[in-house]
Each structure stands twice: as structure tokens, then as C-alpha cells.
Amino acid sequence: MKKILFFPLLDSLPSGHHQVANSVMNYVSSRSTDIQCKKIDLLNRWNPHLESMITKTYLGWIQKFPESYAWIYRKLAYKSKQNRSYKHYEMLFQHKMEEIIMEEKPDLIICTHAFPSYLLNRLKQYGACDVPVVNIYTDFFVNDVWGKEMIEYHFVSDIRMKNQLMEEFHIPANKIKVTGIPVDESFSSPSSRKKEEHPITILLSGGSAGLGNIMELLTKVKKDGQLTFKVLCGNNHSLFQEVSNLNNPNIQPLPYISSRSEMNKWYDLADAIITKPGGVTISESLKKKVPIFIHSVLPGQEEINLQYLRKQGLVFTIRDTIELLDLLSNKQVMKEYEQSLYRYRNTQDFQDPEEIFIFLESLVNKRDQRRQINQIIEKKMMKIMGGVSGD
């Protein structure tokens, strides 16, 4: 059986890297019975206790010391130096990556996190990996850590990222596919919500960890019934309890929703979403054509995402629900927003999961055919050598 390995990172955190990996795995497994998809967390394989500790440290850091996290991220992972080397990480993890590849023998590797991509890029530079690798970027920019030059294909969020890879890193255009950030197939059709329906229903999301200034916004919500909120609390049990304690009939807290089809139903009920600029939630909302409002931003990646999204007219930033209502009721603003959505989608090479699957299947089949040819050649050589030694 043919095999695709997927490399996200931080197994104990249901991040966008894992969600994108799961989505693409489903694209393949729902269409093919002879391709095995397997997800591997490099840190967890190397040391499960370390992976858990890093996850807890990361969540604590961005909540308690956001400014220092943002500074470190920009210093080490974004616009620091081109072709930056992370030798200390190579020494720790490169052998484990090589070990996994030899053990799993994949036909294709897909990275949804920058760190595994960096290690694989280095292995290819050393001639220690000949398996084709695809980067699937889960933000709206390319950070410095991603492996680039030796990676076979790049799935990018938009045309601007494609141009950046071509201009800054000299990646050939045919190696870059504009796909948007892949999301579950449940989100393939736009929201069926009719805008004239009342009350106006707002999804409020803090991502899988329920982060952001959610309570700051909710405490200002009136009980007049003009707006209803469905609050996606993620795994943040404290937030769920705080929202419940508001005792506002127009505010309903929701626990972490793992089912993508169930999440799709909530999008269908929404007139708008207030969220952080995380790659996956934004991409799901863009697919559903639900107007996106940003109220709070996590440091680092999300700050950079927001810069792009605002520039492209794909999100609105607000301070309160009054601004949201004003924007939603402005027909000209909403018309311009729909035009921005059209421009964003119109530049994509692949616009549905079927096209992504066909492309990935072709890569797997090429690798499998090459392997079969090599096996035939090896058998013939062994036969010839056996005949020679018999003489």
C-alpha cells in the first residue's frame, strides 16, 4: 500500500496545523483505498513529555507575556535572515526525522508546520531524503523556518505568497499551487443564512484554546435581543463557565466542537463571525462567505495574518458590537467585501478538495512507479550477478 506521511506539530494542542493535516488526510482517505495516510508529531516521537511541556509553556507564554512572545517570534522566525540556520535543532531532531522516514517508507510527505519542513529541507540538502515533500502553509505569510529551496511543492494561501516564494527564494512557478488554507469538505458551500432574518446571529470564536478578549466584548452586550451570540469556547472550561455566569439569554456558550459537520451548521446560522485572525477559522469563514470581524489578536503569527487580511479587504477590525452592526448594515461596504472574497478565490489554482486529491495522488503514483522500476532493475542486476558468480 502507498503511504503519505503528515507532519504537524504539538500533538496535545488541536491547532490549525493539525486541522489542516486532518482535512487533507480526509480528502485522500475518502477517495482512495490504496493510499494510507499517517500523521506523526516529531516532538511526540522524540519525547512525549517534552511535547506536552512545550505545549503548556506556549499557551502560558502567549497569554501572560504576549509582547515578549511577539518580539521573539519576529526575531527568530519572521523576516530575521534569509536562509537562517537552526543548527541546535538539527542536532536534536534531524536523526529522529531520518529514522522515521526509514521506518515508515512513505511515498509522499506533507508538512503543515514549518519545523518538520525545515528538517526535511536540510536532509534533502545532505542527500539523506529522496521522498517528495509538500509544504501546506497554514497562515497568510511565509515565515523563515519553513524549508523552501529543496521542497518539491508549496501549497500557499494566496497569490501574494506565491509571488514572494518566486521572487525571494527563486521557487519555480510550477512548484507553487495557490490553494487557500485547506479546510474540511463540510465547509464547501456558502452559508445558507438569509440576512433579513432576525435577530442577527454572531459566532464568537477564540480558537481551540478559547483565547482572546472574549469576555471584554460580551460584558457590553445588551439584553435587548437585537444580537444573539454563539460563543465557541474551545477547550477553555473557565471561559465556558464565565460566559454561562453572564446569565444573558442572548449569549450561548458552546464547548469545543470536534465535528466539522456540526461546526458547519453553526456557520450556516451565522450572519457574521467575530474571531482572532488564525488561519483555519479565517479560511473556514471565507469558504462560508460569512463576514469576518476581528476584535482581538494573539501575538506573533496572528498579528502578521491581520496585516495581510486587512490589506486585502477580507476582514474588518472592530472595538465593539456597534461598529459591527454599522458595517453589516452598510450595503456598499458589504458589496466591496463580496468583491474582495471573489478576488481572493479567483486566484486559486485548486478550488475544491477533489483537485487537491488528484494532484497528491499523481505525486504518490509517480513515486510508487519509480520504486517498482528500481525493484525490477535490482532483481535483474541480482540475476545477472548471480549468473556471473555461477560461471
Descriptive tags:
single chain; 391 residues; alpha/beta; Rossmann fold; 2 domains; six-stranded parallel β-sheet; 15 helices; 13% strand; elongated
What is the CATH architecture descriptor of the largest domain? 3-Layer(aba) Sandwich
Extract low-pLDDT stretches: none
The major beta sheet can be summarized as:
6 strands, parallel
End-to-end Cα distance, whole Å, is: 39 Å
How much of the sequence lies in strands comes to 5-15%
Name the shape in a single word: elongated
**Strands of the largest sheet, in order across it?**
2-1-3-4-5-6
Report the CATH topology name of the largest domain: Rossmann fold
The rounded Rg comes to 23 Å
Average pLDDT figure: 85
The helix/strand order is EHEHHHHEHEEHEEHEHEHEHEHEHHH
Number of domains: 2
| Fourth-tier CATH superfamily name of the largest domain | Glycogen Phosphorylase B
Helix/strand-derived category reads: alpha/beta
Question: Helical percent range?
Answer: 40-55%
- Give a count of the beta strands, DSSP E runs of length 2 or more: 12
* CATH domain class name of the largest domain: Alpha Beta
Number of helices: 15
Question: Could you characterize what this model shows?
Answer:
It is built from 15 helices and twelve strands. It has 391 residues and is α/β, with parallel strands linked by helices. The protein folds into two domains: 210 residues, Rossmann fold, CATH 3.40.50.2000; 151 residues, Rossmann fold. The strands form two sheets. It has a six-stranded parallel β-sheet, sandwiched between helices. A six-stranded parallel β-sheet has the order 9-8-7-10-11-12. Helix 12 links the parallel strand 11 and strand 12. Helix 3 packs across helix 4 and helix 5 packs across helix 6. The longest helix is centred in the last third of the chain and has 38 residues. It is elongated, with a radius of gyration of 23 Å. The model has no long low-confidence stretch (mean pLDDT 85).
